Input
Amino acid sequence: MTFKAKIEASEIERLSVAEFGGEICVIDHISEEYFKAVEYLKKQKILGFDTETKPTFTANERRNRVALLQLSGADKAFIFRLIKLGIPDDLAKILSNARIKKVGAAVHDDIRGLQHYKQFVAKGFVDLQKIGKDYGIEEKSVRKMAGIILNLRVSKSQQLSNWESNELSHGQIQYAAIDAWACREMYVKLIAEKAKVEENPKAKVEENPKAKVEEKPNTKAKAKQKETICQ
Output
């Protein structure tokens, strides 16, 4: 499959909106739900990864600390409110586990922000901006890469909202979860296409349905969403 190098904003607007059909769990303190999240994340081979930071609007204003860490599997997304939770050791170990791929965009900046909370050795991180080049993709934003790779439109309506609010809105929770999940789905799609080409270099993707891949993208998930504020 040949991916487009670039995509216009007008093209993105015509795409279907990205929807995550799984469970979303917001965690802001150590609890039973926190430990359930850690156990789930430790078992995953590929996680979508992202962070959110309260924006600043003046040139000389000091940049805020990272407010959220998002990690998503195929069917569950976890939003950790770092302002309240920090980065406990269990979570830091996931970020340092080379066997668990954490896929995001511009991950170096995100990692540096997370290390203000706790020093850890970042391992297993995959930057879509870098690997996209191998597929001829020149775009760098999650929104544009998702348009090219997944043929989906990722909303950015909450990007400049207050991520340190005492309560996150439904829109913020959706946005944060989908951003991380979309990164995972893009990576799964890319490695699936690579596997198909390696199995039959002369065949087009549509003509090579037997390619063996580790996982399949979950872009058609339509299950009723369960959004949980974990206690």
The chain has a mean pLDDT of 88.
